[in-house]
């Protein structure tokens, strides 16, 4: 009589189901990862989507495929051209203890002026060289350098303005509708009180509410003018302008005759501090003189950008070829992880955003090598496990586990160096440190997480037993 072992066959089937479900789970993760990486790649380079979409729209007009728009990468002065200007400040009339605050105020004014040119990510910094204070201004992509120099070099001009009569306001507004008096302020007019009459502005706090406020102190001439202005405008607004731009429009509560006044309101500490710096910038006579100018042409910047992109791509191709030749299937996994690393890092540069310079791109390219270095450590550990006749799944698990401490320590030491360089370095050093640090963080993710999931996808397949693919 023939017997059949149905229960045993059922048990085998029930044991194989979890494995299938596990393989399906890995496949779902892989598909989701591919979709995310493709979306980030399109975000990095919209042409990947736009060119095929435009081609299909041309030949199949009924499709109406939308075009993807994305903001471009922010490029520094050395990549898109522009001007680097160095100004020296005249501190002869400023007390030593007030010089740092005065330079902060001047910097705030210059930033506001630079923004009028539409410069993307201008760099405006102050530095002290010996006993001299300097202002460093980098204007990337600016077209009219001479106009920028003329505007930046002007001493900040502070004005106190009083309200016009309603009739005068209506007349000016009517004239402006006809295209006349376009440069006239219809609501306020000059009072004769300006920055020369303001002795100082300082941050203070209300003794009762502890809210921040601004203390103003006028000189003798300013005290008389301000007393007259406040007597004539009780209950009205007196506007404060810096370089023709309104800073504040406080309402006069009572006549102020002592030469000292306070501006109160719902300020935050940062808002009050910023207003104090602006007021002091217009009150303190800090002329600045251009002592150095370095102009980078747009064509030269574009040429530098083209060369560094070509160098980066060449380096990436050579690294991938080496990994494929030496590590074979594991090299393919590392190459895919490297491409994921590049896509994620470039997306982060756009999202933050990071201003890319030659030194910054150099930091990014250097982190590419570090991303591969982590994979090499993992693969060498895996080869040791495979030589010891361990199964492929155990080799993958032990390879990552044993290599992790080396990867962690080497990358953390690089991150510490990047933080130090970013904290105390100059602009070009900071760009290098920032891109290197971000690249190291992303490379740790792609080497440990992405590579691990890709290798696990081969567990349970015929490929795991192929000695040639894994260089056993």
Structure description:
The chain is of the alpha+beta class and 472 residues long. Helix content is 57%, strand content 16%. The chain is built from 14 helices and 13 strands. Strands 3-4-2-12 form a four-stranded antiparallel beta sheet. Strands 6-5-9-10 form a four-stranded antiparallel beta sheet. Strands 7-8-11 form a three-stranded antiparallel beta sheet. α11 runs antiparallel to α12. It is elongated. Mean pLDDT is 85; it is low at 7-18.
What is the straight-line distance between the termini? 49 Å
Low-confidence stretches: 7-18
* Outline type: elongated
Structural class: alpha+beta
Tally of individual helices: 14
Please estimate the helix content: 55-70%
- Share of β-strand residues: 15-25%
Can you list the strand order of the major beta sheet? Answer: 3-4-2-12
> How would you characterize the largest beta sheet?
4 strands, antiparallel
Q: What is the radius of gyration?
A: 33 Å
User: H/E element string?
Assistant: HHEHEHEEHEHEEEHEEEHEHHEHHHH
> Kindly state the mean pLDDT as a whole number?
85
Number of strands: 13
